[in-house]
Design goal:
With about 130 residues, the protein is of the alpha+beta class. Helices cover about 25% and strands about 45% of the residues. Helix 2 runs antiparallel to helix 3. The N and C termini lie far apart (about 30 Å).
Length: about 130
C-alpha cells in the first residue's frame, strides 16, 4: 500500500512534466497501462518507450492539475487535467481519470478513462 507521501511524490513528478521519470521511478517492471477499452500495454520498458513516442509526437504536454485524489488501500484514483500543444501549435485540454493498483510503493496496473470528444481546443489553456 502506498503512503500518502509516496502518492504525493508521484503526483509532483507528473505535475513537473517528468512523465518518463515517473514511470521509471513509480511503476513495477511488469506494470501495465490501459486507455479506455484499448488493450493494455505491458512492461515498464514498453511503457517508457510509448511515453517517449507520445512526447515526441506533440510540441508539449503539461499536467496542469490533479483536481482530486482518492487513496483506498492499494488503489489510487487521480483526476488529471492536461494541456497538450500539438505540432500545429494548437493547445487542447484533456481531463482524465487514472485508476491505479499499487503493489507496495509502486504502480503495477493503471487504467485511464477519458472522453476523446472532450479534448477541445481552448484559447489560453486551462
Amino acid at each position: 500500500m502506498p503512503s500518502p507521501e509516496r502518492v504525493a511524490d508521484f503526483i509532483a513528478h507528473v505535475k513537473a512534466d517528468r512523465f518518463v521519470a515517473a514511470i521509471e521511478r513509480f511503476y513495477t517492471e511488469d506494470a501495465t497501462m490501459q486507455e479506455n477499452a484499448a488493450p493494455p500495454r505491458g512492461g515498464r520498458d514498453a511503457l517508457v518507450a510509448h511515453e517517449r513516442q507520445v512526447l515526441a509526437a506533440v510540441k508539449s504536454i503539461h499536467a496542469k492539475k490533479a483536481d482530486w485524489l482518492l487513496i483506498d488501500g492499494d488503489r489510487v484514483v487521480i483526476n488529471w487535467v492536461f494541456e497538450i500543444t500539438g505540432p500545429d501549435g494548437k493547445t487542447r485540454v484533456m481531463e482524465e481519470i487514472a485508476c491505479q493498483d499499487w503493489r507496495d510503493d509502486r504502480i503495477f496496473r493503471e487504467r485511464f478513462f477519458f472522453d476523446p470528444a472532450s479534448i477541445v481546443e481552448r484559447p489560453g489553456g486551462v
